[in-house]
Amino acid sequence: MSLATKKDEENGLSTYYNNKTTVIQEARVFNDSPISPRKCRALLTRIVYLLYVGETFTTQEATTLFFGTTKLFQHKDSALRQMVYLAIKELATTAEDVIMVTSSIMKDMQPNSEGLPQEQPSMAQGVERFFKAAIVDKNSSISSAALVSAYHLFPSAKDVVKRWVNEAQEAVNSKSSSFFGGNTGGSSYLGWGGSSANTNSGYQAVPSTSYITQYHALGLLYLIRQQDRMAVTKMIQQLGGGKTGSGTVLKSPLALCMLIRYAAKVIEEDPNVQRQMLDLIEGWLRHKSDMVNLEAARAICEMRNVTAAQLSKPIAVLQLFLSSPKSSLRFAATRTLASLALTHPSSVATCNVDLENLISDSNRSVATYAITTLLKTGNEASVDRLMKQITGFMSEISDEFKVIIVDAIRSLCLKFPTKHASMLSFLSGVLRDEGGYDFKRAVVEAIFDMIKFIGECKEQALSHLCEFIEDCEFTKLSVRILHLLGVEGPKAPQPTKYIRYIYNRVVLENATVRAAAVASLAKFGLNSLDAKLSTSVRVLLNRCLDDVDDEVRDRAAMYLKVYDEPPLAIAYVREESIFSLSALEAKLVSYISDPEAAGKPFDVSSIPKISREQASKESARPSTLDTIGAPSTSRAAASPPPPSAAETQSAYAQQLSEVPEFASYGPVLNSSSKPAQLTESETEYQVSCVKHVFSEHIVFQQGTGPIYGEPEEEGYEDEYQLEDTELSAADYILPSYVTFTSEWDRMRGGINVTETFSLPAMESLKAACDSIIEILNMQPLGGSEDPQSTSVHTLQLSGLVGGGGGKVLVRSRMTYSKAQGVTLELAVRAEKQEAANLIVAAIV
């Protein structure tokens, strides 16, 4: 389908002129005698344009056009031949028998030809000598074309391209000023771009001052050597030019920026060379190119474990750019400082005076980053002044930058809780402004955090949210706010004032919001100690039984049933835990995939539970304190948050289900949460093992890989000493959340085992807690994993034993003294004796 718009047609690109049928009919100009280069170039341009805007050609049409251009290879007009190359490159994916053009291309790559080499993996070895010559050609356009083609050829012809490393090195080291379009005199390495060619084509020699060939050559060199860390380090040191950077042969700022990124990557992978690489990068801080200065400063600022002393030089460079007349430099500097302020606010604070001057910058993007940086580095006294300045230009910036501002204020609320009044006033104000979903969600989440962490503002914040849902156009936000009102509203001093806002949603909103409002209303009635309020809510729920939507009616009916049977409220309203969704999904997939399980009811007792707080953490975006206002970087994007234990289990279950040999083993009961390392950390290749426990089988999944880079295709045999793999209690237990006190009392009549242990090797209660949790792989409850006393502590744990072992709870009372270490009383309550024995045996 063509993507051409009405505007294109008005600009002269008419539908007729760029019609596929018209273009195919006009292809006869390729057969005219004599050939008109102008007409042919125009037609080829239209073909490429049609392909660009999404037009598709059938195989027959593409093949006809493809071979219609074959006569054009012999034409002397180099511009026409270059247009032919562009066209055949686009048509080659659809046309048939395209390999027939190979000989024509090779012929056009002979000396005294202006054609540029095009990559073709199947013919790479046959044209190797042409590529080698083109890479070192004096004409920079030819050299760059050859280098870029080699870069694209590398994945499919690695061995061939690796032999061109010397030519690529020569292109990097070339100091001569090259020319685009031809040389001023004489001929180049292959005779391309000579004076005769210039005469025929009418090209004028244009001097190149960008040294772009060095950039392309450096990229190819790194691609060839990227698996050899030592070779990459040596290349960086050779091209770096010493501590001052003045001795480098690289003249291209782009090449130097790329070299800085390679140096930063080496620092990240090998801390042993950090000092040498850091000296090189600091030398580039004094380069004459602003681009190189910024890249070097950014590389140092993004280093792991960077110290304040190491940051002084790059911050000084960025501070100079803050007063630059170029808005692009000011933007780059403030953006980098905004990111650095997350981890080193005191170091960035030296730039506060310059940043305050940028608040009124004409470029609002610069002003936004300046303010967010000041919010992170400023003190409590400057909050009110900054809030007034922010309010002034919120209406002048886009939603993207509004989100950055709101997120910075969200962080500031937690940093200076005494200033919550002014910040809540600001947030409630912008909540009433126009804006998209992402902006409104950021504001709502900021208010959610204030409700959670600043108790003094809870009631006022809930009132602002109630007013917002009266005119909220986003269903997701309305549902989230109604859920929060159901959780926090019944605890408020005057819960009745929220009922009107919630019931209005039942009357005025869509079905999704009405269902959420019903659930919120029910929590007010079932959690309230006020009998009058409970009765009023019941009346409102009865009215909801007449709703036109099934979900709304069903929820109302369920909660009315809970009214009639109060014990149900513990499970459906007041329960603090929920099923782990990842584990539930994996069990359901396994259940419906097993034909033998169809006749049995689905067993939910084997699914671990997590607290509602854990569930909200897993579903929420990253912490505000970690990411507020931080510009996204490629390095950050390449490191997504690690999967949760339940997600890991689900992924393993999916992998195992795809192996036919394991089909008869039944569902997997448990998999190791972390792979066990079977080799020393210093070995070049590391071997890890994951244990998968089935009801009657155990599968050991081993993985092997190099520490750095990717494994080579052609390797060699070697032997490694592997550690033994052991099975422990942790391989059979899944951590699961419960309300410990009530569940401990409920299991009083079940299996009870109590043992006393002496742990003299433990140096603290914290060490004992960590060791017990690791050995048993159980869920610590109530924050008991962090002892508050150094001498006495009680650790509470909960878990499920796979294979039908049922629920198991552990209460570990422990004392510590320097003379005896830790003394432990381990009490176990379980649904089955085998589960209790497993726990006790693990500690022994």
From TrEMBL:
<keyword id="KW-0968">Cytoplasmic vesicle</keyword>
<dbReference type="InterPro" id="IPR009028">
    <property type="entry name" value="Coatomer/calthrin_app_sub_C"/>
</dbReference>
<dbReference type="InterPro" id="IPR013041">
    <property type="entry name" value="Clathrin_app_Ig-like_sf"/>
</dbReference>
<keyword id="KW-0333">Golgi apparatus</keyword>
<dbReference type="InterPro" id="IPR012295">
    <property type="entry name" value="TBP_dom_sf"/>
</dbReference>
<keyword id="KW-0653">Protein transport</keyword>
<dbReference type="Pfam" id="PF01602">
    <property type="entry name" value="Adaptin_N"/>
</dbReference>
<keyword id="KW-0813">Transport</keyword>
<feature type="domain" description="Coatomer subunit gamma C-terminal">
    <location>
        <begin position="730"/>
        <end position="843"/>
    </location>
</feature>
<comment type="subunit">
    <text>Oligomeric complex.</text>
</comment>
<dbReference type="GO" id="GO:0030126">
    <property type="term" value="C:COPI vesicle coat"/>
</dbReference>
<dbReference type="InterPro" id="IPR017106">
    <property type="entry name" value="Coatomer_gsu"/>
</dbReference>
<protein>
    <recommendedName>
        <fullName>Coatomer subunit gamma</fullName>
    </recommendedName>
</protein>
<dbReference type="InterPro" id="IPR011989">
    <property type="entry name" value="ARM-like"/>
</dbReference>
<dbReference type="GO" id="GO:0005783">
    <property type="term" value="C:endoplasmic reticulum"/>
</dbReference>
<comment type="function">
    <text>The coatomer is a cytosolic protein complex that binds to dilysine motifs and reversibly associates with Golgi non-clathrin-coated vesicles, which further mediate biosynthetic protein transport from the ER, via the Golgi up to the trans Golgi network. Coatomer complex is required for budding from Golgi membranes, and is essential for the retrograde Golgi-to-ER transport of dilysine-tagged proteins.</text>
</comment>
<keyword id="KW-0597">Phosphoprotein</keyword>
<dbReference type="GO" id="GO:0005198">
    <property type="term" value="F:structural molecule activity"/>
</dbReference>
<dbReference type="InterPro" id="IPR013040">
    <property type="entry name" value="Coatomer_gsu_app_Ig-like_dom"/>
</dbReference>
<dbReference type="GO" id="GO:0006891">
    <property type="term" value="P:intra-Golgi vesicle-mediated transport"/>
</dbReference>
<dbReference type="InterPro" id="IPR037067">
    <property type="entry name" value="Coatomer_gsu_app_sf"/>
</dbReference>
<dbReference type="GO" id="GO:0009306">
    <property type="term" value="P:protein secretion"/>
</dbReference>
<dbReference type="InterPro" id="IPR002553">
    <property type="entry name" value="Clathrin/coatomer_adapt-like_N"/>
</dbReference>
<dbReference type="GO" id="GO:0006886">
    <property type="term" value="P:intracellular protein transport"/>
</dbReference>
<dbReference type="InterPro" id="IPR032154">
    <property type="entry name" value="Coatomer_g_Cpla"/>
</dbReference>
<dbReference type="GO" id="GO:0005793">
    <property type="term" value="C:endoplasmic reticulum-Golgi intermediate compartment"/>
</dbReference>
<feature type="domain" description="Clathrin/coatomer adaptor adaptin-like N-terminal">
    <location>
        <begin position="20"/>
        <end position="564"/>
    </location>
</feature>
<dbReference type="InterPro" id="IPR016024">
    <property type="entry name" value="ARM-type_fold"/>
</dbReference>
<dbReference type="Pfam" id="PF08752">
    <property type="entry name" value="COP-gamma_platf"/>
</dbReference>
<keyword id="KW-0677">Repeat</keyword>
<dbReference type="GO" id="GO:0006888">
    <property type="term" value="P:endoplasmic reticulum to Golgi vesicle-mediated transport"/>
</dbReference>
<keyword id="KW-0472">Membrane</keyword>
<keyword id="KW-0963">Cytoplasm</keyword>
<dbReference type="Pfam" id="PF16381">
    <property type="entry name" value="Coatomer_g_Cpla"/>
</dbReference>
<feature type="region of interest" description="Disordered">
    <location>
        <begin position="611"/>
        <end position="652"/>
    </location>
</feature>
<feature type="domain" description="Coatomer gamma subunit appendage Ig-like subdomain">
    <location>
        <begin position="651"/>
        <end position="701"/>
    </location>
</feature>
<keyword id="KW-0931">ER-Golgi transport</keyword>
<comment type="similarity">
    <text>Belongs to the COPG family.</text>
</comment>
<feature type="compositionally biased region" description="Basic and acidic residues">
    <location>
        <begin position="611"/>
        <end position="620"/>
    </location>
</feature>
<dbReference type="GO" id="GO:0000139">
    <property type="term" value="C:Golgi membrane"/>
</dbReference>
